[in-house]
Give the backbone structure.
Amino acid sequence: MSTEHTASAPAAPPWRLALGHSYRRGRKFLWFLLLNILPLYLASDLLVASGALAKVSGFLAPVMGLWGLPPEAAAVLVAGMLVNLYAATAVAAPLALSWQQISVLGLILGIAHSLVMEAVVVRQLTPRYHALTLLRIVLGLAAGWLLALALC
Amino acid sequence: MLGQLIAMLPGAALKGLVLCAELALVVLPLIVGYEMAKAYGVFERPWSRLRPALAFIGLGPGALVPLLAGVFLGLLYGAGILVSVSREQGLASSERLALAVFLVTCHAVVEDTAIFVLLGGSAFWILAPRLVLALGLTTWLARRGKGRKPLTGEDNGHA
């Protein structure tokens, strides 16, 4: 019986490596939820319940009305576009939104989210990443507007 | 007012934890699925039947792996495969632009859609318009100003 593990030791099967990677990624994701998403949800819930968010965003009502959304949903768009979709969820959850409104938000943000972080990746593909980021915002808002017209 | 808000905290914390648990239940299985797909090279198969469709949107066979990685893994998670393979394959700049246009409109389709379905949104209305826009924009881009017939499957897509 050999006690030596040399280069001839068989490599771990792919599924085992995959599980190891998943475990590390999953753990990181859980910490992200607890340290970032939970506090953001709490803040959003308190701001919604206290009426502070409605007060601050009230002036946006005519604009957000174009997408059939309450003015508070502007905060969801900002969180999704600047941070990521999980942040958008945390802000959106305390708002009482209909399935149509969530679908509109999902479509806008599905096209235009994590704009800063993802522009870094897009830049590796094409030097026109500024134009593409603008395209995402315009396309997302336009698609969301059409969907709001269709659903509401 | 402040007292009321403090009294609300435990309830809000509980609801927040439920949201986090729901997100975890959706995303953790996806992570395992993605890692398995990566480990077994699902995104690196030739998938030759997709070639004519790729050519139609202005992409050569070399763009397939980055496209699949982006569409399923997403721009951030798939960035490793996306960027390194695009370099290795020496994609033409028109191909890289088409790839970027497709992917900024439509990527991480499973995860992004699932998050909003969790909140109560419609999977169809969130995903279908993105796919249609991505296909439409790249198809238009591939034909713009070229004044020539659409690329066929035999054509490798390089101008």
About this structure: The radius of gyration of chain B is 20 Å.
